[in-house]
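Lay summary

Proteins are chains of building blocks that fold into shapes. Our project writes down both the chain and a compact code for its shape. Here are two examples, one after the other.
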Amino acid sequence: MRIPAHSVCTAVRDDIVAGVYERGSRLTEELLARRYGVSRVPVREALRTLEAEGFVVTRRHAGACVAEPTEQEAGDLLEMRMLLEPLGASRAAQRRTEAHLKVLRGLVRLGQERARRGSSDDLRSLGGWFHETLAQASGSPALTSMLTQLRHKIAWMYTVDAPVDPMESWAEHGAIVDAVTRGDGERARAITALHTERSTPAHRLRFTGGAERADRVRTSQPPVNMSGMRH
């Protein structure tokens, strides 16, 4: 069965974000095809997509390599996030469906419950799902795609400290949902802008100058099973 290129793309992107591939390291079609158990055709297509997204660059005499963004480029991502997430929330207030609201309310309930318990790992995942759903509720595929790419790149370049007061953070999530439910775009934008601004200082660059880098991928790594991936 031929594995779709977008599934290979997702797998390679996830590994880049996780630090499996060192920044600046080569990504040969042969190594990737063997690692993910696919032919070189979907690998080639995936690399083109990842280059368009900014995760991969093509270098003369080296071919495809993991990109090495500068600190300024990393900082620009956080500024873009501060502009686009409030816009997405404002659009969501006008375009959300009942299905979106049901998921958002459920995530807020779970987030507040986990915050009371101090389950920081669960909170990180729930926060990601919340903002992903909020972006989808904007009804704008282009904006949703941009926000998704931003989240991937920020996760690649930054570690994020847990909120000092998780309950307050999830109270802000709840206020965003309330504004979206009422169709109040301006309030949804304002609360999301405040929430994003407050969370920005918790982001710390993973790599600066000669800082420690992830281990290189070796061709002896076990293959990745692609058959169970979500399309």
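And here is the second example, written the same way.
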Amino acid sequence: MTFTIRPLDPLTDARLLHGWVTHPKATFWMMQDAGPADVERAYLDIAADEHHQAYLGLHDGEPAFLMERYDPAHRELVGLYEPEPGDVGMHFLVAPTDTPVHGFTRAVIIAVMRHLFEDPAVRRVVVEPDVRNAAVHALNEAVGFVPEREIQKPEKKALLSFCTRERFTAATGVAV
């Protein structure tokens, strides 16, 4: 599968994202009741934030997933764990589809992780999915994430997990 990742443009991509983040399968994205203007505003805020970036992932040139990268020393996890140099936080969301392709979501997370590890400063990827999101926990573990502990965030109880470059390569066979 061929994936490319480009910076998200909140003004042109918000309508597309609205359909993704409000879809019933995106319940853990916590934007179910957001209107198009809410989505645009949320991603304009991210675009203006030096510690948080959003990207659109394309599969064969077509929008297929959303990826966010953040600095956990400044966003999402402040005060909830002790960040280490080279830590980067990540969220991703695969676009909803009526015709799922077996292995597609795993291919997406591998593409996301490769993209993050292309930055030589990144030593470890940090995630904090909802503790109830069993599907993403299994997917994370399949690409090398190791759960550390449950944490209480303002909006959810989350499973704090980490993946080093070495664990990612060992789990996937993808050298980065």
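What can we say about the second shape? Helices lie at 10-21, 36-47, 104-117, 134-142, 165-172.
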